[in-house]
């Protein structure tokens, strides 16, 4: 393998590895208090400690599962499409997966809590 063909492999592995590390940290060491630096931060999730806890727990589990699918997506794209296009497919899948996770988490918060962050009966 030459340098040109190994660079995309390193990038693919790096993205997958970074995603798994971030997912592990958010799942096993979630933020304990509402803050602006770390955790799932949206207006709805930051309303109360209960919404904060639910959003961070739910999204962390989702992101953990998403992160384990990325190496499969990367390997499949690399085998079928080649170097550079596999990187584009991985990044597109990662961004799409994150967007789906945000939508799912926000819908869950809306279903479980009212607009003031109080649990629905």
Automatic annotation (TrEMBL):
It comes from the Bacteria. This is SdpI family protein. The lineage of its organism: Bacteria, Pseudomonadati, Bacteroidota, Cytophagia, Cytophagales.
């Amino acid at each position: 393998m030459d340098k040109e063909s190994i660079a995309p492999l390193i990038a693919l592995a790096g993205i997958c590895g970074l995603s798994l590390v971030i997912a592990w940290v958010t799942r096993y060491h979630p933020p304990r208090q509402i803050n602006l630096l770390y955790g799932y931060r949206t207006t709805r999730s930051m309303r109360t400690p209960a919404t904060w806890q639910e959003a961070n727990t739910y999204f962390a589990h989702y992101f953990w599962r998403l992160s384990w699918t990325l190496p499969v997506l990367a390997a499949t794209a690399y085998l079928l499409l080649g170097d550079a296009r596999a990187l584009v497919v991985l990044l597109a899948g990662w961004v799409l997966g994150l967007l789906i996770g945000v939508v799912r988490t926000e819908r869950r918060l809306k279903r479980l809590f009212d607009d003031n962050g109080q649990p629905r009966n």
